[in-house]
């Protein structure tokens, strides 16, 4: 999304299948190194093994049960890599996208005014009004998506860091509630994007309806529109 918005003319050259594969692979490799591998090796329990063993035994039923606890270094490292650093990148990326979109809209308005006949310059600019509405909706969409992400995951990762420093006194039910709140965010995302973004909604309809042509966007450019080529950053692009 960032590449399409901020660098559209060189998008196909930069977002190659290999680069996309590396990015998708990183989405699995990074969690493996910050969650699966350390936990399976027991790095999260270094220094708190005695405390874990005490809590594993239930005196009332004279039995043991699974207890998952993390020490201070792992709590900080995991939370920073899994939430705080990605959250910072998301904020910066969405901010850059929003600023770029506003700049594009401003340039479009300038071009529209330059091409408007003299006798109609005093009439309301419908294109500018529509563009401003689109900017406002885009800003609201980004705020809603980022707000839901923060509200759903922040309680868990804040508690994840705080709990080791207050001698693990956070109630277990509260932990479970915060964890499921984060899971709910993943369930909300498809609905947020589908209801707030026409392009995503159209894409979902095409996928769910097996490529039904009714939901495909009609081509704005006719087949008879002349083409020309231009070179940008060393790559050749076709302009219609």
Structure, explained:
It is found in: Cell membrane; Endosome membrane. GO terms for molecular function: G protein-coupled serotonin receptor activity. InterPro entries: 5HT4_rcpt, GPCR_Rhodpsn, GPCR_Rhodpsn_7TM. With 240 residues, this protein is mainly alpha-helical. The chain has a single domain, classed as Up-down Bundle (Rhopdopsin 7-helix transmembrane proteins). The chain is built from eight helices and four strands, in the order H-H-H-H-E-E-H-H-H-H-E-E. The strands form two sheets. The chain has a two-stranded antiparallel ribbon with strand order 1-2. Strands 3-4 form a two-stranded antiparallel ribbon. Strand 1 and strand 2 form a beta hairpin. Helix 5 packs antiparallel against helix 6, helix 6 packs antiparallel against helix 7 and helix 7 packs across helix 8. The radius of gyration is 25 Å and the shape is elongated. The two termini are 23 Å apart.
Distance between the termini: 23 Å
CATH architecture: Up-down Bundle
The count of strands amounts to 4
Share of helical residues = 55-70%
Low-confidence stretches: 118-124, 219-240
CATH class: Mainly Alpha
Structural class: mainly alpha
Radius of gyration over C-alpha positions, nearest whole angstrom: 25 Å
What is the molecular shape? elongated
Query: What would the CATH topology be?
Result: Rhopdopsin 7-helix transmembrane proteins
Helices, by number, come to 8
Strand content: 5-15%
Average pLDDT taken over every residue = 78
Please outline the helices and strands.
Layout: H1 2-6, H2 11-14, H3 17-41, H4 49-56, E1 57-58, E2 63-64, H5 72-114, H6 126-165, H7 172-196, H8 198-208, E3 228-232, E4 235-239
Antiparallel strand pairs: 1-2, 3-4
Helix pairs in contact: 5-6, 6-7, 7-8
